[in-house]
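In this section we walk through a basic example: taking a raw amino acid sequence and producing a predicted 3D structure, encoded as discrete structure tokens. The instruction is simple. Fold the sequence below.
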Amino acid sequence: MMKISTRGRYGLKAMVDIATNGSNKSCVSLKSIAERTNLSECYLEQIIAPLKKAGLVKSTRGANGGYILAKSADDISVGDVLRAVEGSMDLVECLSGNQKCGLSDCSCCTTRDVWARLSNSVKSAADGINLSELIKRS
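The resulting token sequence is shown next.
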């Protein structure tokens, strides 16, 4: 079920910071992200792991280590980031295959189509905004 938590909001902030301050040659440290965004470095460590696992960021170890985008900011959508840190973007659990409404067959639910249409609209909006747009707005 989709509820954008601090993980989603902070994950997006971190990705915008990496996109803004990093490049192919210079990595962005978690400490510097934490300082610029006023977020906890410890919490950022937890958020960056699924972003790395999803292939959205790459890491480099060492004195000049940190994180860079794994692909162009044009190719990373808000939806990509939210899915990486939040999971499914479905508004209700039954759309993700988790039957929580009490019906044995969710396909006969009279309101399921409403939730599916709303979920698709949210996904489409999130997928239609990329990091490049967010950088230009800031």
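Looking at the output, two observations stand out. The CA atoms of residues 94 and 114 lie 12 Å apart. The longest helix spans residues 6-21. In the next section we compare this with other chains.
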